[in-house]
Amino acid sequence: MNSGLGREVEVGSTKFSINRWEYNENKKIMEIELSYKDSGDYIATKFDFSAKAKVNVKKQLAVKTMLNTNNIYIVQIENIPEIMKLLH
């Protein structure tokens, strides 16, 4: 999902938005808080997340789900490339 903070993106019948993201330069991780709401008949509460760096789109980055509660997910992406320093 490539989106600005608070902007909803529809994936199937589910709408996601990014509430916050933080980059830890020392640990090279990014933590992202997502909220979601399902507009279909079935509310899916288990999602699998993946991430790729724009500099090497063939390489998957490790993603861990840290929290899943009350329509909120917090995920961490590991081994963020050095290029992220330019965003801060």
Quick overview:
The chain is mainly beta and 88 residues long.
What distinguishing features does this structure have?
single chain; mainly beta; 5-stranded antiparallel beta sheet; 7 strands; 88 residues; 0% helix
Characterization of this structure:
With 88 residues, the chain is mainly β. 0% of the residues lie in helices and 52% in strands. It is built from no helices and 7 strands. Strands 1-2-3-7-6 form a 5-stranded antiparallel beta sheet, with no helix packed on it. It has a two-stranded antiparallel sheet with strand order 4-5. The protein is globular. 7% of the residues are buried.
| Strand/helix succession | EEEEEEE
Strand order within the widest beta sheet: 1-2-3-7-6
Q: Work out the helix count.
A: 0
User: What is the CA-CA span between the terminal residues?
Assistant: 20 Å
pLDDT averaged over residues: 82
Please give the largest β-sheet.
Answer: 5 strands, antiparallel
Morphology: globular
Class from helix and strand fractions: mainly beta
- Please provide the count of β strands: 7
Low-pLDDT residue spans: none
* Multimeric state: single chain
Q: Which strand-content bin applies to the residues?
A: over 45%
Rg value: 14 Å
Q: Helical proportion?
A: under 10%
